[in-house]
């Protein structure tokens, strides 16, 4: 596994890229990477995700408790914990607030993606001739309750490649920071296509 410094560098790079693309406006979004079976690195709450520095990361356990009490972990830490606890193969979790994911998630209960070449970036898909539905959960400021809803859904649909929160954003993950970033890039591209295609039809 990559060392802490490399993981932080990779997460800072993802933040810069996502901010350039307009996917993490202001302090929106949060990022994490697994350190071991019981710990993760996660962004502190309230920092600008395009301007992250090493000091903006802290170590927390998978119950969301920071090891050092110097900074507060992301408000949405429990959503990251849920994913790491659900699947030991998950090594990184990235959350974005793009225009496309926000508009689509306010309007639909799930986003059906089919026929896109970039679907092949998602787990278990080897052809464009496939279909996935990215579910949309109701937004909830009670993050423990939201994490429980996601967990219940994932137990019924373990192949779920990512999820949206209505009017809020995307959660995607991967075995490494790079893989999670590629999946965010692929999903945001397909959401942008869906938004434009749906506008054309209206
Ligand atoms: C300040 S608006 C965005 C937050 O409410 C939240 O949705 C978010 O993505 C960032 O929260 P954070 O606590 O910085 O990780
Ligand atoms: Zn958010």
TrEMBL record:
Its cofactor is Zn(2+). Pfam families: Aldolase_II (PF00596). Keywords: Amino-acid biosynthesis, Lyase, Metal-binding, Methionine biosynthesis, Zinc. Its EC number is 4.2.1.109. Zn(2+) binds at residues 95, 97. It is an enzyme of class 4 (lyase). It comes from the Bacteria. One of its GO terms (cellular component) is cytosol. Pathway: Amino-acid biosynthesis; L-methionine biosynthesis via salvage pathway; L-methionine from S-methyl-5-thio-alpha-D-ribose 1-phosphate: step 2/6. One of its GO terms (molecular function) is methylthioribulose 1-phosphate dehydratase activity. PANTHER family: 3-OXO-TETRONATE 4-PHOSPHATE DECARBOXYLASE-RELATED, FUCULOSE PHOSPHATE ALDOLASE. Catalyzes the dehydration of methylthioribulose-1-phosphate (MTRu-1-P) into 2,3-diketo-5-methylthiopentyl-1-phosphate (DK-MTP-1-P). Belongs to the aldolase class II family. MtnB subfamily. This is Methylthioribulose-1-phosphate dehydratase. It comes from Fontimonas thermophila.
